Amino acid sequence: MSPTRTRTAVVDELCAQAVDLASAAAVQLAGPAQVGEHVGLQADCERVVTHLFRCLDPAYVGWRWAVTVTRAARSRTVTVSEVVLLPGPESLLAPEWVPWSDRVRPGDLGVGDLMPAASDDERLVPASMLEGDDGVLDWDDSSAWDEGKELAASLGIVAEQDEPGVAVPGRARVLSAIGRDVTAARWYSSEHGPGTPLARAAPGPCATCGFLTPLAGPLGRVFGVCANEYAPDDGRVVSLDHGCGAHSEAVTTGAGPRAMGPVIDEVGYDLVDTPGVALADTVFESLDHSEQ
User: Fold this and answer.
1) How many CB atoms lie within 10 A of CB 276?
2) Residues 6 or more apart in contact with residue 144 via CB below 8 angstroms
3) Most-buried pick from 2, 115, 241, 254 (CB within 10 A)?
């Protein structure tokens, strides 16, 4: 099957000659002070031609008045179809519009700002579905309740109760498996992960630090929260293989700040062999001989 061929439009001779008609239409719409010289034309389709005139408005530098003219079949009378202002190849244009949801970046949310999650956000699932190996948790089953109430309480879905099936409303949605994976990848590759110079120079990983507070749930297998007020990551989520100089066992492992020498040595001095010094030695030697 042969590909579809696009037929190139041929410039209609009568429509191409209607420059004065097109110019008068542009002047009638914009005024004589806004329409400049004819800068070209283009064939849109059969017996349809668009004439281009330079726009003289200083607010639209590089823009052009586009006047489309046409004629009926077997007619020699050309009429104006449309007059619009269009940007030219050198026009100053606004950047391409981007939806607000794509423009928002981490840290943009301020006081009073609202950014609700979409109903189909793949990072969230209904709280009634605890994702895992067992699928949906059946709250009417006492054995399922015993196994899942601790996890549910830690997630804030229901309060921990003594009687099965008695639930207190909590969060409507929780992190999905996709949400957890995306979050873990973002945290692990951040400056609070193991790949930073701070972590590589640490005396030990956060997993062995007494100030680490583990997270609950699956994310707690890889991350925790730093509780050392002197650490640069205090109050932030860090990976277990992250680290810093404020490790709780830094003193016992021999790590710690090293004593620094004086920045300026005001006691000793260095002799530098320079032309100026050699000249001074010669002068002093000559002075010694003269005194003798």
Assistant:
1) 8
2) 134, 137, 138
3) 241
Grouping H, G, I as helix, E, B as strand and the rest as coil, residue 210 is coil
In terms of domains, do 141 and 184 share one?
no
Instruction: Describe the strand order of the beta sheet including 237-239 as a list of residue ranges.
Output: 212-214, 223-226, 237-239
Side by side, the strands of the sheet bearing 48-55 are 35-45, 48-55, 63-71, 78-87
Same domain, 184 and 198: yes
Tell whether 225 and 204 lie within a shared domain: yes
Q: Are residues 196 and 159 in the same domain?
A: no
Put simply, whether the predicted model's pTM sits higher than 0.70 gets the answer no
Which tokens go with 225? 């929260």
Give me the CATH number covering residue 82: 3.10.450
Cβ-based neighbours of 45, under 8 Å, separated by 6 or more: 9
Domain that holds residue 54: 13-87
